[in-house]
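Holo prediction. Input below; ligand is magnesium ion.
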Amino acid sequence: MIIRSAPEIWEAALGQLQLEVSKANFHTWLNKTCGQNYQDGKFVVGVPNTFIAEYLGRNQHSLIEKVLTDVLREPVKVEFSVANNTEKTLPGRTNLPLFNPRYTFDTFVVGNSNNLAYAAAAKIVENPGLAFNPLFLYGGAGLGKTHLLHAIGNRAVANHLAVLYVSAEQYTNELVTAIREKTTDEFRKKFRTVDILMVDDVQFFAGKEQTEENFFYTFNELHSNNRQIVLASDQSPKSIPMLKERLRSRLEWGLVADLQSPDFETRLGILQLKAERDGVDINPDVLEFIALQIKENIRALEGSLNRVVAYSKLLRTMVTPEIAARALEDIVGKEPQLAIVTPNLVTEAVAGTFQLTLSDLRGKRRDEATVFARHLCMYLIRQETDCSLSEIGKEFGDRSSSTVSYAFGKISDAINNDPLLKRQIFNIQQRIHSTRARN
Ligand code: ADP
Ligand code: MG
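Structure of the complex:
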């Protein structure tokens, strides 16, 4: 059969892609796409909105190119383009963006680093304009600000509220256009008649006097009508440079909530959720490994998981922590676990965890708790360093290698039967590696 038109080619590719990705993944990202154009080795895929374009571009670009190359039997470059006729506008209102269906409150993992921001966001959708106004979220890149804004948007739409989301940059561009085309009345109407206005990345306003002034009036009008305003920024209102005082003080009128780097539990939770969502079957040890290595940024955390999964597909092998380490080599450094960890470092971490002294662990105390901690210590040194059994024995007052071997077996068994112990050991490992990172 000779396939010719772009839609036909894409149909064939979709058939193939359906086999390659999970059902949920296919449904969310590929279902409403179409083949738009194929020319000079470039294939244009039409997608319903920019979120889907971005997602596919970031996560499935190479898979789609590979499948199309298979179908067409020649090298293909893929581009994603938002198709004009699908889903761009909502009935009744124009230009309202759709919210990313992936960014909801349910898919937001809550931990100490972000619970205030989460709770505040959830609260304002239930009581727009009444709880705290404005809500100002701030935190470093990739920590979930935009996710929370979209979660607000998704729920607000479900509650039939008029909600508008723009980036500060978009607001600026639309204002400039409105001034040029003398449509400032419409501009004003669009931004001042909603129940909830969300502006992302407001640090962009700093130093843009005309926009800042215009936004100041928008803010005042919405606020005095009890319309909800939600803002997100990479810095707190106080630290955004060149922001005029009168706007800055208004930004602090309501609640200012920050998002911090997530702790280990939260990072692990995010990875588990993402693996489950993408239908990726992956060894829990690998998720824990990634959560231990990637600390600052949730986007990087997700990216690392994608990379590890892609790497294992390429090698056609099950992912182990070693494979993960190799896939992430340039991010976490070579041989992240080995080499630098010393028996002393491990013993200190165990001693700290169990509130024992180094000499308790290395000496002759025989109470149950100390013996257990000592065995755990031997186990961890074996895991974390290149020491031989007899070298480990020497660390503990010349105990024999068979004692160390016995301890190792005992702890291995205990871990298999006791998830709490397993978690505790990971916490100790995290402690070891964070000490090492500081050194
Ligand atoms: P920011 O706007 O703060 O730069 P984003 O909201 O774009 O960050 O988040 C980056 C990525 O991390 C997104 O894919 C988002 O879904 C994910 N993410 C961030 N925080 C969480 C969280 N608490 N739970 C689940 N996913 C999260
Ligand atoms: Mg953002």
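The beta strands are 34-39, 42-47, 77-82, 135-139, 163-167, 196-200, 228-233, 255-259. That is the main takeaway for now.
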